[in-house]
């Protein structure tokens, strides 16, 4: 993907005035406060209008939630410093506090397991239970109160992927009495309660929510529960063919109830739950599609407000880490321009190279391919992960090694310690070279990660992505060593029943 490709449709498409908001997902690899502030500076330099911060368990909660928050959670002073820095850069800050689903960080614990919608799954809260409402509203109030010390005009209450509903005792009790066994009414009444509480306690606060529960619903039901005036939907979709996934009827039905809408694209974290390198092409296609969606359907609304570029760090609280921020900075930079302009202009390219602190000879094509030598915040982590990926690719493409493995290091040969040392030794020396390179990369990566992330991030990342390959090489090298120690062999057959 080269600059000429990015520019090819510029003649037909004009820049929009939609706002762009960058999402920070702190349920995985939360940045140290200093690195967080550096990231906010880059986001501002790239021209974004604001950030959406999904604090999850990293917020400095007090009361009932204090004992289950992340052990690395930010302090009140650190949180205020982060918020103040964003404000000083002119960035709006919208907190995201999950209110229905994706409450794994709370419901996983012994303290709050009794509030699960389904006792087997720690995902969705039992919203018919008054204790749930009190707990969620407390979490929202704490977040808004702290944000308001600096500035806050909107909050996102999540409400996506509510996979179970009407299963807990409290829900089953109230459903036939109050909602005619209609779980959608149960959900809407709960959302109305939450949104009304927010707007009453914190006037002029806009309440955003993912559109999941609002699509394919009769207009009369949305109006009955006043959601048309209480919440603003955020339509999210991270695929590359939105014309199919977001059909005209969906937009028309949504516009019949809501005057304002946001779009939700992605710049990372939506291309596979265990992808550790950012394949930018998928996100460029997604953000281009979002530009076209806004062009086609924006006029249905009084205000197509803009785009939230999501940057998921885990698919949920329990999922693996994916596409850390350092490997996604180029994608963020490119897609902030794509979603507004459909393309990257020469002026955009100059701004990107400057914001990412790239040497003067750097081309935008190098940034897109990840072959640059830019010194943006966290670049050492990006470089080390890139080095690991290249080492792994070199091993996978080493056909001479794999040909000899296929001939001389099959399971039977390893089991018997019987093979031809002449061929096995050459493979063993190759293993040693790969292992030595991995040792160096892991040392560099650990130091680089610990500078910008908390120490558990390197442990988790290396355990999931580096150690399986490293251990495989170690085991194969041990097999070579064992074969070398075997000097003589008995007559065949070597296998008998």
UniProtKB/TrEMBL annotation:
GO terms for MF: hexosaminidase activity
Full protein name: Hexosaminidase D
SUPFAM superfamilies, A to Z: (Trans)glycosidases (SSF51445)
């Amino acid at each position: 993907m080269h600059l000429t490709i990015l520019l090819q449709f510029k003649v037909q498409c004009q820049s929009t005035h939609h706002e762009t908001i960058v999402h920070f997902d702190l349920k995985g690899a939360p940045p140290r406060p200093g690195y967080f502030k550096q990231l906010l500076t880059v986001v501002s330099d790239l021209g974004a209008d604001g950030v959406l911060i999904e604090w999850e368990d990293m917020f400095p909660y007090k009361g009932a939630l204090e004992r289950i928050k992340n052990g690395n959670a930010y302090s009140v002073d650190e949180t205020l410093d982060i918020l103040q820095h964003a404000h000083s850069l002119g960035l709006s800050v919208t907190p995201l506090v999950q209110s229905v689903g994706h409450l794994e960080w709370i419901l996983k614990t012994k303290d709050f397991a009794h509030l699960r919608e389904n006792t087997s799954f720690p995902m969705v809260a039992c919203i018919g239970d008054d204790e749930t409402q009190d707990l969620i509203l407390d979490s929202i109030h704490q977040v808004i109160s702290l944000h308001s010390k600096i500035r806050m005009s909107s909050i996102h209450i999540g409400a996506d992927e509510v996979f179970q509903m009407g299963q807990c005792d409290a829900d089953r009790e109230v459903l036939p009495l109050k909602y005619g066994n209609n779980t959608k009414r149960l959900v809407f009444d709960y959302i109305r309660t939450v949104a009304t509480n927010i707007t009453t306690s914190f006037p002029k606060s806009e309440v955003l929510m993912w559109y999941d529960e609002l699509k394919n619903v009769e207009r009369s039901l949305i109006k009955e529960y006043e959601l048309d005036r209480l919440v603003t939907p955020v339509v999210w979709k991270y695929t590359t063919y939105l014309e199919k996934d977001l059909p005209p009827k969906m937009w028309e039905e949504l516009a019949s109830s809501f005057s304002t809408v946001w779009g939700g694209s992605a710049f990372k974290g939506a291309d596979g739950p265990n992808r550790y390198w950012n394949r930018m092409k998928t996100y460029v296609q997604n953000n281009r599609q979002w530009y076209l969606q806004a062009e086609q359907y924006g006029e249905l609304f009084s205000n197509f407000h803009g785009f939230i570029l999501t940057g998921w760090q885990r698919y949920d609280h329990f999922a693996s880490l994916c596409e850390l921020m350092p490997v996604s900075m180029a994608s963020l930079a490119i897609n902030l321009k794509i979603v507004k302009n459909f393309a990257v202009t020469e002026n955009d390219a100059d701004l990107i190279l400057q914001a990412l602190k790239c040497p003067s000879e750097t081309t935008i094509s190098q940034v897109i391919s990840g072959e640059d030598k830019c010194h943006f915040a966290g670049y050492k982590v990006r470089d080390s992960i890139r080095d690991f990926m290249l080492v792994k690719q070199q091993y996978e493409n080493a056909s001479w090694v794999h040909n000899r493995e296929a001939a001389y290091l099959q399971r039977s040969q390893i089991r018997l310690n019987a093979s031809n040392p002449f061929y096995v030794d050459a493979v063993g020396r190759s293993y040693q070279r790969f292992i030595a390179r991995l040792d160096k990369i892991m040392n560099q990566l650990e130091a680089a990660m610990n500078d910008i992330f908390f120490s558990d991030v390197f442990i988790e990342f290396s355990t999931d992505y580096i150690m399986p390959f490293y251990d495989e090489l170690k085991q194969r090298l041990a097999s070579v060593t064992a074969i070398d120690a075997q000097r003589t062999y008995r007559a065949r057959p070597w296998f008998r029943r």
